[in-house]
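User: I'm curious whether this sequence folds into something compact or stays loose and floppy. Could you predict its structure so I can see for myself?
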Amino acid sequence: MAKLKTKWICQNCGYETAKYLGKCPDCGQWNTFVEEVVETNSNNQSKVVLNDTKPCLIDEIEVDKSIRFTTGIEEFDRVLGGGLVQGSIVLLAGDPGIGKSTILLQTGKSICKDGRKALYVSAEESASQVKLRAQRLGVKSNSLYIYSQTNFEAIKRQIEEIKPEILIIDSIQAVYSDEITSSPGSVSQIRECTNILMDIAKNKNITVVVIGHVTKEGNIAGPKVLEHMVDTVIYFEGDRYKSYRLLRCMKNRFGTTNEVGVFNMCDDGLHEISNPSEMFLNERTQNNTPGSVVIATNEGTRPLLIEIQALVGTTPYPSPRRVSNGIDYNRLLQILAVLEKRIGLNLSKQDVYVNVIGGLDIDEPAADLGVALAVATCARDVCVSPDTVIVGEIGLSGEIRAVNNLDKRIKEAEKLGFKNIIVPASNKIKQDEFKNIKIKEASRLIDAITACVSKQNN
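Assistant: Here's the prediction. I'll summarize afterward.
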């Protein structure tokens, strides 16, 4: 007869303990322990080995070229490294309403065109609700099955009956197994259901795509071990109040993690954007405006030209405000400190607002010089020429440090018709390689500011 016992499990990292703890000793979070009932067998029976293959030499292993298949969405394939891999498990996470279910329905439609079967398990919506979204997206297929179910044992029976080539779970936090007594969304349920999905993917050669919820901090809900169990982790980013979406890969056992996909959310679904730089700059005015600059940032291996705007104004309050949207707040404070110490720009009695147009989040240091020039030009009421692009990382002593993939950034700026670009002198880019854009090198922050001002005066 089975014995019942309880244990306390951290809902953030999955740490287990026999008694309640206020603070988790593993992840350091407070009040995250929840008591869960664990069922154990009284007799010690060993588990059946499902895979009894023997080891073989690496040179004798043959790889099937058809092991990877495309999703029919080029931007999605770019992030996945060329498409979905048979027998793999992919975790797709993002904020509510960002478009996770939308892109997977579109993916299911494209995959089924090649004669493959797809099973879409909706654990949060009814089949009729999924049908309404499918009608809006124009999804029609004779081999795309919709199944509204939360019980994992029932889902496994349908997998055995339908035998799909791709399985979509929406979402893993809403699915539960009868073998675990805890509630859906708990650490035990998520870990157990993911383990079962891994067995299904590897033993039946089924590609599994799982949707995961995120916490208010932007992390994937559930234990951290969930990200280690799957083969690929993809984040869907973007401001849900704007139409731009970024698909970013954080882990990929079958490809690079440096690629991103860019989409535009429309009434009929997600549309791919082949030239995202042009899209982010299409509303930019060509008139000179203080505090507006264009930077060349890298999203993976793809260069993007993005506009950064800064607003500097006198504050009536004793403590000035520092507001950053799309730029790390601490990074902004560091740039302002360099401007005050190395350039002599006094901002102690002025509010500073910095905004990245398009709702994107920029975390690479190559945007430092653009942010600094936007703030400096707005504070001094001068303008950066609208046909100039800024690239560079700023050190604490005011030097401009080299950035990677600078040649790709320059080519992107040249392709979009920009005439000038300010780059770090330490990159040592030759002007002869670029005919339609003038390269201005700067070794220190004051040199870059002087180049912008002199260009404006000329």
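Summary: Confidence is low (pLDDT under 50) at residues 40-50. DSSP finds eleven helices and 23 strands in the chain.
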